[in-house]
Amino acid sequence: MEIRLKRLLNIGFGSLIIMGSIACNNEKLTKHEDDLETKIDSVLSLMTLKEKIGQMNQYSGGWEVTGTPSDIDTQTKLEKLKNGEVGSMLNVLTAKETREAQEVVMTHSRLKIPLIFGYDVIHGYKTMFPIPLGESASWDLNAMEKSAQIAAKEAAASGQHWTFAPMVDVSRDARWGRIMEGSGEDPFLASKIAVARVKGFQGDDLASENTIAACAKHFAGYGFGEAGRDYNTVNIGEHELQNSILPPFKAAANAGVATFMNAFNEIDGTPATADKYLQRDLLKGEWGWDGFMVSDWGSIAELIPHGFAKDRTDAARIAVEAGSDMDMEGRAYEVGLETLVHENKVDVALIDDAVKRILRVKFRLGLFDDPYRYSNTEREKSEVYTNENRDIARDVAKKSIVLLKNQNHILPLDKNIKSLAVIGPLANDKDTPIGNWRAQGEANSAISVFEGIQDAIGDDTRIFYEKGVDLGVGERSFLAPLKINTTNKTGIESAVKAAKLAEVVVMVLGEDAFQSGEGRSQTQISFAGFQQELLEAVYAVNKNIVLVLMNGRPMEISWSAAHLPGILEVWQLGSEHGHAVADVLFGNYNPSGKLPVSFPRSVGQEPFYYNQKNTGRPADNGEVTFSHHTDASNDPLFAFGFGLSYTTFKYSEVKLSASTLKPGETVTASVALTNSGNRSGKEVVQLYMRDLVGSITRPIKELKGFEMVSLEPGESKTVTFEITPELLQFYTANKKWETEAGDFHVFIGSDSRVSTFAELEYVTP
Ligand code: NOJ
Q: In a mutational test of the pocket of ligand 1, which residue from 297, 299, 328, 520 has the highest number of ligand atoms less than 8 Å from its CB?
């Protein structure tokens, strides 16, 4: 015992053990002065096998950790907490409750290794920011970093150490409900956003009380489920995996993301949770990443229904060998690992590696210095949902709006317009803007579009509001299936009356918050319920319609695109939704967002994305036998990267500093961009490239750079991108990331449809 205590003192948290109290006061023992790996090894050397396995075990809260357990299972869980058999908890909320749960461990367990608390802080903690897909439409990396920073600050003030975000799954399928949680269809954009979000959550110092550990998820392929159906089988080849799916994960790992989460899906027959190549060989081996991998909820135990393990013990063996370090509520490690080690079926070295990784993150968070650092009820009161945070949310929100159509300059609206009708089931909805994955965002707490308009409009405007129809009916929550209204359309008549009285109609349509998110895949992506009927009835009496589209996925809006003069894509923008929408509607902010996903003409085109392969039959030969659907054009309804402004921009031709590029060299590509309209505005200038011939076939275009430029009316700027051989790399037929010699087209323009290019040759000696 004496020896153990001495060793504990050496690693810097002896006072916790001796006094059973909060902090280690010894200044000398700070993380900066001690060698992290020595500390980790010291802790590990003290642990029994049971305690080690305990660190790999994560339970969900939702039960009274300090009160009387309501059932026997909870009683067992509580005992396990006391015995040091739990390393982490998720869904334990508030500073008070996290402190109480931590106290159980710090008071009763032998080694007093602090718990790490995790929570899905996906787009805000209580101050809600735009859903991640919406925020990605800002293409504004600083704004996205800031939003993650505020989310981290609020979460940290409320006792959380760790968010299960960012979700960096590339997705090309609008049917998938979780497309709302990612950053769209492009691996380059997704990589930049992944880094911004990791930096925002983690800051420069994980131990700061304002930062939390991030988690790159879901490793890997989760966004590619067949038919866009959640949890479904993924069948992709190695090149697709490497070139389209892994880049944002690699970027997050390089940015120092503290944790990864694996995925529910299988890829080509191997469940991701059991994938040794991905987790152990690639991520922890080749990429040299030293954080820990948490399973997705129950995904280790789900190896059984996958037909990959025969029972929990078998699942535990497979998952630990593959490199899953922590078992989220699967209870497979708890059930199986000890026996597996005793029977020599699992090498204890694998367990040691997992535990070291978990301890490393706990040390980096400063939990060994002060396990209660984040559970501060005072900070929770003063730093959460502040006016300042809401202002920041409004700023990101307005930047996330995409102007899709603006015929005859119907927008911006005059603040002193004589009459305005605001119509639609989402027009005064204060809940849908909070979106799915809403953490502590309160139901019905957002500013609705109607409220935002009322705050912005002049006193003399006559304003009419009509809901028209309900969209969803009944209970709305994370787990309740959403029921769409298919019976009551009695409100259409009064909506039509209001539309007749107004100069302009703002129609607010789209999706309920719970139409997207986990388990919310759909076969249809057009307006649900009676919305289309409402829209067409209004259109019959007033054609001056601005459609405000609120949604968590690309939608099929071909009719609207063909008939309505104005369309604003506003997603679900969080707490300040209505204010941000009004900022754009009335021109206080000139829209600058660009789509991070393509909008198809029809759901039948999904999966639908700009960076497709050319196929052997790309050309429209006017006959039947080319690659197309006979009932829809291959062109997107709205393209990836597309978004209008209240001003206009003119691009010059692309100029290259040289027509050949050699190893070690850089060629610059530039355009002169001019604001040719009469308002100041911002444009996201996009660089695309096409590799004409490859050892594997290459996409018709790939985003390779972007820059946001602000210009006053009449002002011009030269925008320059650097092209290096590294930028041209891809995972080749040699199964390596390489640049192949050959010809490239270089495009710079305002969206992915840009067609003029300069030619560049990459020459190797
Ligand atoms: C399952 C989801 O797939 C994952 O993203 C989330 O973090 C966990 N549940 C925890 O809520």
A: 297
Cβ(701)–Cβ(757) below 8 Å = no
Separation of alpha carbons 321 and 624, rounded Å: 51
Q: What is the mean pLDDT of residues 370-375?
A: 94
> Residue 296 catalytic?
yes
pLDDT tens per residue, range 346-356: 999 999 999 99
End-to-end alpha carbon distance in the chain: 67
Quick check: CB of 217 below 6 Å from ligand 1?
yes
Q: Judge residue 148's burial from the number of C-beta atoms within 10 Å of its C-beta, 0-12 exposed, 13-18 middle, 19 or more buried.
A: buried
Q: So what's the pLDDT on residue 244?
A: 98
Give every strand in the sheet of 545-550, ordered side by side: 402-406, 566-569, 545-550, 504-510, 419-423, 462-466
Structure tokens at 631: 């009932």
Give the up-direction half-sphere exposure of residue 131: CA atoms within 13 A in the CB hemisphere: 30
Contacting residues for 720 by C-beta, under 8 A, at least 6 apart = 668, 669, 670
Query: Would you say the C-alpha torsion 393, 510, 646, 702 has a positive or negative sign?
Result: positive
Ligand 1 site, residue 583, Cβ cutoff 6 A = no
How far, in Å, is the centroid of ligand 1 from the Cα of 685?
35
731 lines ligand 1 (CB under 6 A): no
Cα 436 to its chain centre, rounded Å, is 12
CB-based contact 576:134 (threshold 8 Å): no
Q: Which of 176, 218, 296 to mutate to test the pocket of ligand 1 (most atoms within 8 A of CB)?
A: 296
pLDDT in tens, 527-551: 999 999 999 999 999 999 999 999 9
Question: Distance between CA 16 and CA 371 in Å, rounded?
Answer: 9
Whole-number pLDDT of residue 34: 63
Q: What type of residue sits at position 27?
A: E
* Ranges assigned E (strand) in 161-205: 162-163
Q: Measuring CA to CA, which residue among 727, 750, 747 is closest to residue 739?
A: 727
| CA triple 193-196-201, angle to 5 deg | 125
45-62: b (≥16 Cβ within 10 Å) or e = ebbeeebbbbbbbbbebe
Return d(Cα 294, Cα 326) in angstroms, integer: 5
Beta-carbon contacts of residue 288 (< 8 Å; ≥ 6 apart):
none
Quick count: other Cβ atoms within 10 Å of Cβ 348? 14
Q: Spot the catalytic one: 296, 325, 369, 370.
A: 296
How big is the chain, counted in residues?
765
Planar angle of CA 219, 222, 228, nearest 5 degrees: 175
Q: Is 193 exposed, middle or buried (0-12, 13-18, 19+ CB in 10 A)?
A: buried
Domain ranges of the chain: 392-605, 649-762
Within 8 A by CB and 6+ apart from 119, the residues are 90, 91, 93, 155, 160, 162, 163, 164, 439
Residue 509: closest CA among 451, 567, 574, 443? 567
CATH number for domain 392-605, candidates 3.50.50.60, 3.30.70.1050, 3.40.50.10470, 3.40.50.1700: 3.40.50.1700
Average pLDDT, integer, range 210-214: 98
**Residue keyed to tokens 């690309």:** 554
Task: Name every residue whose Cβ is closer than 8 Å to that of residue 196 and which is 6 or more positions away in sequence.
Answer: 141, 142, 144, 145, 148
Assigned token pair, 358: 């978990």
Q: What are phi and psi of 214, to 5 degrees?
A: -100, 175
Asked whether residue 734 carries a pLDDT value surpassing 90, the answer given is: yes
Q: How many CB atoms lie within 10 A of CB 598?
A: 28
DSSP H or E stretch at residue 198? helix 187-202
Specify the CATH superfamily of domain 649-762.
Immunoglobulins (2.60.40.10)
